[in-house]
Amino acid sequence: MLLLALDTATPAVTVALHDGNDVIASSSQVDARRHGELLLPAVDRVLAEAGLRLDAVTGIVAGTGPGPYTGLRVGLMTADTFGLALGVPVHGVCTLDGLAYAADLAGPFVVATDARRKEVYWARYADSRTRLTEPAVDRPADIAGEVAGLPAVGAGALLYPDTFPQAHEPEHVSAAALARLAVERLKAGQELPAPRPLYLRRPDAQVPKNYKVVTPK
């Protein structure tokens, strides 16, 4: 087994290689505006660090968000392209699940990432491997009652201390955590879903109202 994991659902552009036993190479850079520019060089970097070629990869793991439309689709399209080119399976893992796994908290807690527009993408967890609710996007004040008293991890939690007073690292997801979680689930016999994006809302870019299409006569 050699899994290539990647995620671009948060400001972190993160890539890792897992050989079935542990992560053997990883790279993470935080830059919310350069996902497309940074992802492929990061893949090249982790392959070089491991002394391997891309054609040695036996599977792809992609973070499925939730996340902003533009950043998220960079990672998912790259994962699908690698899967088609190499003829290997592509597995989807919720980005919030990767953060929860990396946090390694024993009791109930919340994962919240920055959704911009003064909102967070979030979900509640029973422990680091068990999600209790579907990912959602809300204003922090609107969910204060649901998350009251719970520890929280992620950039969204750190941004809004009034709603998440017990906020902890990690701030962003790491592909290393995604890879470890995916391998754990695969070894347990779980079937990982195909990577389908969790956008949760429309993209920021919209066609202007009263837009007129001009075609040549």
At a glance:
The protein has helices at 35-50, 69-86, 95-103, 144-147, 155-159, 175-187, and strands at residues 3-7, 12-18, 23-30, 59-63, 90-93, 109-116, 119-127, 130-131, 136-138, 152-153, 167-168. The chain is α/β, with parallel strands linked by helices and 217 residues long. The strands form two sheets. Strands 6, 7, 8, 9, 10 and 11 form a six-stranded mixed β-sheet that branches. Strands 3-2-1-4-5 form a five-stranded mixed β-sheet, sandwiched between helices.
Describe the fold and architecture.
InterPro entries: ATPase_NBD (IPR043129), Gcp-like_dom (IPR000905), T6A_TsaB (IPR022496). Keywords: Acyltransferase, Transferase. Residues 32-145 form the Gcp-like domain. This is tRNA (Adenosine(37)-N6)-threonylcarbamoyltransferase complex dimerization subunit type 1 TsaB. GO terms for molecular function: tRNA N(6)-L-threonylcarbamoyladenine synthase activity. The protein is globular and about 50 Å long. It contains six helices and eleven strands. The N and C termini lie far apart (57 Å). Helix content is 30%, strand content 25%. The model has no long low-confidence stretch (mean pLDDT 93). Strand 10, helix 5 and strand 11 (167-168) form a beta-alpha-beta unit. By secondary structure, it is an alpha/beta fold. The strands form two sheets. Strands 6, 7, 8, 9, 10 and 11 form a six-stranded mixed sheet that branches. The protein has a five-stranded mixed sheet with strand order 3-2-1-4-5, sandwiched between helices.
